[in-house]
Write a structure and sequence with these properties.
Layout lengths: L1 H21 L3 H5 L3 H8 L2 H18 L4 H21 L3
Helix pairs in contact: 1-3, 1-4, 1-5
């Protein structure tokens, strides 16, 4: 389950990076619509649903230590950003 959570976090972070770049091209590529750019970069329904299901399963399997959940999420985000920055993904 942590692998699926990491995949969804990685996909959402990658889409967020794409969105940050697409904001500069709103007029030329997306006819000035922020929502078109957002939907082109992030498939929110799909990723949010999978993240919710995977995250719920991960929390259900946790032993009750909430601090380790936060630490795992922070480390997962950091690793995914590092993979994106190094082009390993």
């Amino acid at each position: 389950t942590s692998y699926f959570v990491a995949l969804q976090i990685g996909a959402m972070l990658k889409g967020t990076c794409y969105l940050a770049e697409e904001i500069f091209h709103l007029e030329t590529r997306h006819r000035g619509s922020f929502w078109r750019a957002l939907s082109a970069c992030l498939h929110l329904r799909w990723h949010a649903t999978l993240l919710l299901v995977s995250g719920s399963a991960y929390v259900a399997l946790l032993d009750g230590d909430r601090r380790s959940l936060g630490l795992h999420l922070v480390l997962t985000c950091f690793c995914q950003l590092l993979f994106l920055a190094l082009g390993l993904h």
